[in-house]
Design goal:
Strand order of the largest sheet: 1-6-7-5
Oligomer: single chain
CATH class of the largest domain: Mainly Alpha
Number of strands: 10
Cofactor: Zn(2+)
Subunit structure: Monomer.
Bound molecules: zinc ion
EC number: 3.2.2.23, 4.2.99.18
CATH topology of the largest domain: Helicase, Ruva Protein, domain 3
Radius of gyration: 20 Å
Structural class: alpha+beta
Protein name: Formamidopyrimidine-DNA glycosylase
Helix content: 25-40%
Pfam family, one: H2TH
Strand content: 15-25%
Number of helices: 6
Shape: elongated
Largest sheet: 4 strands, antiparallel
Length: 270
């Protein structure tokens, strides 16, 4: 599943090819994504210039003159830049044709993504309740400590809650809690400010590193069949249940927490 780093890398990869370009046409081959692509998307966006290419949580926002196209990659979606009339392949559901001849092509085998239109992104149902971006200064230990005081939910579920902070997916939550030495089952309101400081530090560091790796892995968004893969990262706990902890050698524990696989070291994390 594309996580925040993949989405951010997609954003920075497509931006130079589409920024300040006018949309000539939107071709929709399959409207039935997670939500139906609006019928009028082509008319609403025609002859409009792409002014800003933004990311909010895992949404890509193409800001035009009169509104915003919201794109989510769902479980299996990807975007790529087509410059050479590459033939349409299976699951290439949408093409956005630009005045410079470039096509922004949306591919999504499982169709859990979405492409929507809004005039007011700030108040849009999908965006209005999102917490701060993890890599901004608004996400800090004062903030996280304050909002945790009335929350007895497990710390792992707390940091994966999009209303608290966006973009901390399952892999990153497992890894950041290990790095900070915090047991993922511990109630959010029982964790001290000093430990939140550590946790915030590692969440930022792990996400920033993933984006950096992505920048080198996904160098090239241009090409007919260049499908972006996901980032190869060194993982300390995720996917390593019942294997020895890399720090102390004890076997890592694995349970489901909120239906998501959770791995931790009972010796190093408390
Ligand atoms: Zn350990």
């Amino acid at each position: 599943m594309p996580e925040l780093p993949e989405v951010e890398t997609t954003r920075s990869g497509i931006e130079p090819h589409i920024i300040n370009q006018k949309i000539k046409q939107v071709i929709v081959r399959e409207r039935r994504l997670r939500w139906t692509i609006p019928d009028e998307l082509d008319i609403l966006t025609s002859e409009q210039r792409i002014k800003v290419v933004k990311r909010r949580a895992k949404y890509l926002l193409l800001e035009l003159e009169s509104g915003t196209i919201i794109i989510h990659l769902g479980m299996s979606g990807s975007l790529r830049i087509i410059e050479d009339n590459a033939p349409v392949q299976k699951h290439d559901h949408v093409d956005i044709l630009l005045e410079n001849g470039v096509i922004l092509r949306y591919h999504d085998p499982r169709r859990f993504g979405c492409i929507l239109w809004t005039k007011e992104p700030a108040t849009h149902e999908l965006l209005k309740n999102l917490g701060p971006e993890p890599l901004t200064d608004a996400f800090n230990s004062d903030y996280l400590f304050d909002v945790s005081r009335k929350r007895s939910v497990a710390i792992k579920l707390f940091i994966m809650d999009n209303k608290v902070v966006v973009g901390v997916g399952n892999i990153y939550a497992n890894e950041a809690l290990f790095a900070a030495g915090i047991n993922p089952n511990k109630p959010a309101n029982s964790i001290s400010k000093a430990r939140y400081e550590k946790l915030v530090h590692y969440i930022k560091e792990i996400l920033a590193r993933a984006i950096e790796v992505g920048g080198t892995t996904l160098r090239d968004f241009v090409g007919g069949d260049g499908k972006p893969g996901y980032f190869q990262q060194t993982l300390n706990v995720y996917g390593r249940g019942n294997l020895p902890c890399k720090t102390c050698g004890k076997l890592l524990k694995e349970v489901k927490l909120g239906q998501r696989t959770t791995v931790w070291c009972s010796h190093c994390q408390h």
